[in-house]
Each structure stands twice: as structure tokens, then as C-alpha cells.
Amino acid sequence: MNDARLLVLEEELLIALEIQRIAEEAGAAVIDLVHSLDELGAYIRAKPPYAAAIMEVRVKGVSTLAAAAQLQLVGLPVVFATAYNHYRRGVTGFPISPVVLKPFESTALVEAIATAVSKHPAIGA
After folding, report:
1. Which of 38, 52, 70, 102 is most solvent-facing, going by the fewest CB within 10 Å?
2. Which residue range or ranges hold the Response regulatory domain (predicted)?
């Protein structure tokens, strides 16, 4: 993950900061934290060169899956971080997007990011 730039959509500040800490310890250079779909849209419109996005499945009661699909369409791998156990085996419509269940271990998150980047057709294949 050396020098990677990551985009994180997480509404809970402490979880967002934990994801940031884990990513920085794994070598990410920049981690942009956003807490809503509106903020996510603003960062994407700015088009910085992200290596991957780490997203909740729902933010403030709203599904993030449409936004995740748009990110994948423009070549950005997505990792889902969720507390919803029924997503343990994956998110329907996102066969190459890893899911990490909260609370997650550092290694699980880092491995999920590496897997998403390596499996994404526009990035790693």
C-alpha cells in the first residue's frame, strides 16, 4: 500500500480515525475521510488519484451501493466495511469487492484493500 491515496466513507469518527491509522501504518500516504454521500461526491468530482475506496454499506440510513457502483465504473476498487453480518459473504452486485466486518482486525482491512486493488480490472488485472 506504499504511498497509496485512499478515500474512506465512514460516518463514525472514531472508526474513520482507526481506518486512517491502520492505512497509514500499512504505508498509505493520504487518507481522505468523508462522513456523508454528499462529501463523497465532492471528493470524487475533484478526481484525486485514489487507489481504493473503503465504504460503509449504509450511511445515515441511506444505502451507499449506488455510489459504490459509480466508483467502480470509473475504475476505483471498493472495499465495504460494515457491521451488517448478512454481508459477510459479499455484497450483491459487487463480486470483486471485499467485505470486512466491524469490528475488524488491522490485517483483515489491509488484506481487503490489497485484494480489491489486485482484482479490479482497471487497476490490478
Report:
1. 38
2. 5-117
Whether 85 is covered by a domain: the verdict is: yes
Helix boundaries (H) for 49-89: 65-73
The closest alpha carbon to 79, from 113, 50, 124, belongs to: 113
**pLDDT for residue 45:** 84
Give the span between the Cα atoms of 83 and 81, in whole angstroms: 7
Return the pLDDT at 124.
40
d(CA 48, CA 37) in angstroms, rounded, equals 17
Low-confidence ranges of the chain (pLDDT < 70): 121-125
Residue 124, domain member (yes or no): no
Question: What nine digits make up the cell of 28?
Answer: 498509505
35 CB neighbour count, 10 Å cutoff? 17
Task: Read off the CATH number of the domain in which 24 is found.
Answer: 3.40.50.2300
